[in-house]
Write a sequence for this structure.
């Protein structure tokens, strides 16, 4: 056989494979693929198509081609938002990543005291809408801020300065999580080698540490850039007359009822978000595994100068974060900041927004987002990974797309798609259901990718073994796949819940009378001048977030205790 | 073999071809496996042996050819309707289920009474000698124990065919040897038709009734372990199964003789070739006779010992041939080597027993 030319051999074999008879299980598989594809089309692609289409129409519905874009770029007042957005995004990105890198270095590579406390405090901004950071800065540095009054010096916080400051705090934990992971995944043997070769600490840092985390740094940069350029809350609250693209969409749609211009700005905003997403994915694909089975984890050595230097630095940052949240709490608990510091609970009645209804709505929406989102993300990942069809690649692509869609754009797209008279989907509009759907889609990608990773870590032969034993795949899904992925599933649902509690951009267009959400209420009360009530509502959001996080922590401990019998084999019987 | 018994083969493959893109993984493989037989697919990685097993299992779909099991064409049946048990290299035990539930997994969907399932689980666990571990989780067992559980799980529904995909490769050498013996004994006892994929020739020789040696997507030779070892049909088989010395030579004037430089050598049975045709002689290291034992044996040569390698039970000598030909490897029992009283650099008389001297036409 070896002397037969491979090309002719290959040509002699037909390209089609012999088909298997379609059985009941295959039908179930195909139905699942079809359902998932339909959901993705209906709630991701279809609304996006609507936005793009609307940007090509005049307000009366006539097709005008690129006229809206010409008007957008030709009107200096609106076009300025593009430059402004890029400006604050790049500045915030640079500051956040540098600050978070040093912080992450302190947490992972030094033996400074209080590392656990610093880690927890740095996570606080995850529990608050982005606009809360902005409010805190106003309370401290605004015209009536406590620092402004104490020093008599007004830093001019309203505008780009305030946006950057608020965004840095808002994005800090996101960048930190990525960099801590990157700095933790290292091989101590590299450092031993550098030491034995006589490399100086600086040289070791430049030749071992930095190259090891370059993908983490790139990823952190893109995440922060995307978070800032798509953020609506902070620039809305503290931006003043400084308009960015996200607030421009809001102004066009809510202020001037100019939906086509809103759609036009949305499409333009999609470009940097999608670009950042694509470049990040290309860069991450080139990442190689730094940590292999034979790697030895790095245990930082005691270096007093570095340890205490990092301690001072981290204490400063953690202090600033804690200080901001303390300011919010105090603001909500005194009669009138900064004039009358008599304690009171009267701001917690939320008279202007109808009491606690928005908060209850938020919890309800977040809980259902967690439930539906987790089911869809895990089920979708399973369908893409385990029910291989010609469609799998496309389904994967559309599943990771939502992370590149700014919340404002998604919200506007849902208005166009689901507020169309005569459409069956119109029934969704103005309900809590549409808020749940938009949250699920907005945060879908991370849940989907987490589930995909969990599924890929499982033995690919599980399904084959089941098939050989005549056990249908869905039975193995329930009995093996789900129990094994339980920690990931719990993590995904927590991610959905916490984000649904704090998001503003994806829901601000979709709330209706009766379906107000807490984060939107903060915005409305702040707009109306009820700043103390806005602060009080923020405190409630953060408190619920923290409580839920704590609950999940207990749940995860319970899960790992129940599964430790089969998860952590005792050393002696490992082999 | 199936023709002798008159029964249809347990597994019959007819012209199985498979390609991935333009890469040909299998180019028309045909084979019949009799009921109760233990067959090994042996070959280097990438030779198509695993692909062939997965096609039999229905986990991979062939581009051409048919798979028949017990006379029933299963080519178009999904895996769940082919009635086999399979054991993978990774064990693929369900980590969240106990040993007993793993073994019972294939029984629980088959409307079998609870008590009957438990009885069958007990039976299988006793069979693989792990009854005491029934309530443990897979992670609490050793690799060898896990593989035995995987075997019990595959056998629980009493399949007509057992497929083993490199079942011992992930285990360390000592466990592998004992499990090899155990699995073979179990297979004999149950009489279940078994196909095993392996790249370990020693494993194939020790376990199989018949070995299917594969290379580049095609079958090189099918035969019993003794046939494959003693009478390799191609240089590839000769090299892959066991050790083999190759000596480049030309056909001599007399039939049955070859010329190696100035030396004439008689060799084993072969097709007659015109004098001067290049050919390759082959002999296994342990078949070379050395020292006093060469007295009166044909094909004697005096060589120089280039290197001595002590390998425990035997010593491997590297012997220089005249005319710059690659050195011959020769294995001598450790005690016999001591009796030779030679050392590196010394001269040694050897004899290439004509019956052991195989001939392959053309150069290798």
């Amino acid at each position: 056989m070896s002397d037969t030319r491979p090309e002719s051999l290959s040509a002699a074999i037909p390209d089609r494979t012999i088909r298997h008879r379609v059985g009941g299980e295959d039908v179930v598989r195909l139905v699942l693929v079809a359902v998932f594809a339909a959901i993705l089309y209906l709630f991701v692609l279809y609304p996006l198509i609507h936005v793009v289409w609307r940007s090509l129409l005049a307000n009366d519905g006539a097709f005008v081609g690129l006229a809206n874009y010409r008007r957008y770029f030709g009107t200096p007042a609106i076009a300025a938002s593009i430059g402004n957005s890029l400006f604050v995004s790049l500045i915030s990105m640079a500051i956040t990543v540098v600050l978070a890198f040093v912080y992450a270095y302190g947490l992972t590579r030094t033996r400074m005291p209080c590392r656990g406390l610093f880690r927890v405090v740095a996570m606080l901004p995850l529990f608050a809408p982005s606009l809360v950071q902005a409010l805190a800065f106003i309370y401290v540095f605004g015209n009536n801020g406590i620092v402004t009054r104490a020093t008599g010096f007004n830093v001019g916080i309203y505008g780009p300065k305030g946006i950057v400051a608020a965004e840095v705090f808002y994005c800090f934990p996101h960048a930190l999580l990525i960099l801590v992971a990157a700095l933790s995944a290292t091989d101590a043997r590299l450092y031993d080698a550098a030491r034995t070769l006589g490399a100086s600490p600086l040289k070791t840092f430049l030749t071992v540490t930095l190259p090891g985390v370059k993908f983490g740094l790139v990823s952190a940069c893109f995440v922060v850039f995307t978070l800032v350029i798509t953020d609506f809350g902070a620039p809305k609250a503290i931006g003043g007359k400084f308009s960015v693209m996200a607030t421009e969409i809001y102004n066009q749609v809510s202020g001037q009822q100019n939906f086509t211009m809103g759609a036009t700005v949305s499409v333009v905003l999609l470009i940097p978000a999608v670009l950042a997403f694509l470049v990040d994915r290309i860069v991450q694909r080139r990442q190689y595994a730094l940590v292999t089975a034979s790697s030895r984890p790095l245990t930082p050595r005691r270096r007093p100068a570095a340890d205490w230097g990092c301690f001072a630095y981290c204490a400063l940052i953690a202090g600033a974060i804690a200080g901001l949240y303390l300011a919010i709490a105090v603001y909500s608990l005194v009669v009138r900041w900064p004039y009358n510091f008599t304690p009171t609970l009267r701001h917690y009645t939320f008279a202007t927004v109808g009491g606690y209804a928005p908060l209850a709505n938020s919890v309800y929406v977040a809980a259902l987002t967690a439930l539906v989102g987790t089911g869809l993300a895990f089920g979708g990942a399973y369908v893409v990974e385990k029910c291989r069809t010609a469609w799998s690649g496309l389904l994967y692509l559309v599943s990771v797309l939502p992370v590149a869609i700014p919340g404002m754009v998604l919200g506007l797209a849902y208005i166009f798609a689901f507020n169309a008279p005569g459409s069956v989907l119109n029934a969704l509009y103005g309900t809590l259901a549409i808020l749940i759907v938009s949250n699920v889609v907005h945060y879908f990608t991370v849940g989907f990718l987490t589930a995909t990773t969990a599924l890929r870590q499982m033995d690919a032969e599980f399904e084959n073994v089941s098939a050989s034993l005549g056990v249908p795949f869905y039975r193995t899904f329930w009995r093996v796949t789900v129990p094994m992925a339980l920690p990931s599933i719990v993590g995904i649902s927590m991610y959905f819940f916490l984000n649904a509690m704090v998001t503003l951009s994806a829901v601000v267009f979709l709330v209706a009378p009766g379906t107000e959400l807490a984060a939107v209420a903060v915005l409305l009360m702040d707009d109306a001048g009820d700043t103390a009530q806005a602060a009080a509502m923020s405190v409630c959001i953060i408190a619920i977030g923290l409580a839920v996080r704590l609950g999940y922590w207990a749940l995860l401990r319970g899960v790992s205790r129940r599964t430790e019998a089969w998860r952590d084999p005792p050393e002696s019987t490992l082999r | 073999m199936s023709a002798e018994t008159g029964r249809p083969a347990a597994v019959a493959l007819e012209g199985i071809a498979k390609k991935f893109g333009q890469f040909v993984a299998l180019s028309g493989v045909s084979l019949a496996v009799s009921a109760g037989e233990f067959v090994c697919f042996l070959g280097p990685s990438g030779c198509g042996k695993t692909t062939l097993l997965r096609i039999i299992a229905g986990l991979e779909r062939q581009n051409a050819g048919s798979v028949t099991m017990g006379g029933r064409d299963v080519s178009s049946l999904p895996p769940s309707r082919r009635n086999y048990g399979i054991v993978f290299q990774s064990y693929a035990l369900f980590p969240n289920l106990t040993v007993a539930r793993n073994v019972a997994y294939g029984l629980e969907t088959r409307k079998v009474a609870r008590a009957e399932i438990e009885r069958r689980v007990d039976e299988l666990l006793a069979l693989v000698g792990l009854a005491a571990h029934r309530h443990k989780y897979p992670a609490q067992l050793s690799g060898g124990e896990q593989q035995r559980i995987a075997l019990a799980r595959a056998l629980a529904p009493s399949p007509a065919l057992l497929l083993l995909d490199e079942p011992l490769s992930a285990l360390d050498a000592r466990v592998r040897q004992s499990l090899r013996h155990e699995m073979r004994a179990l297979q004999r006892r149950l009489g279940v038709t078994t196909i095993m994929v392996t790249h370990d020739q020693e494993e194939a020789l020790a376990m199989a009734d018949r070995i299917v040696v594969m290379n580049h997507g095609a079958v090189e030779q099918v035969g019993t372990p003794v046939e494959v070892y003693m009478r390799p049909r191609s240089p590839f088989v000769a090299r892959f199964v066991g050790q083999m010395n190759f000596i480049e030579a030309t056909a001599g004037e007399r039939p049955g003789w070859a010329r190696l430089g100035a030396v004439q050598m008689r060799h084993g049975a072969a097709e007659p070739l015109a004098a001067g045709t290049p050919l390759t002689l082959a002999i296994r290291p342990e078949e070379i006779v050395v020292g006093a034992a060469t007295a009166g044996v044909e094909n004697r040569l005096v060589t120089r010992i280039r290197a001595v390698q002590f390998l425990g039970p035997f010593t491997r000598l590297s012997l220089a041939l005249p005319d710059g030909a690659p050195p011959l490897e020769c294995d001598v029992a450790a005690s016999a080597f001591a009796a030779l009283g030679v050392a590196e650099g010394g001269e040694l008389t050897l004899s290439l027993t004509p019956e052991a001297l195989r001939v392959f036409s053309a150069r290798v």
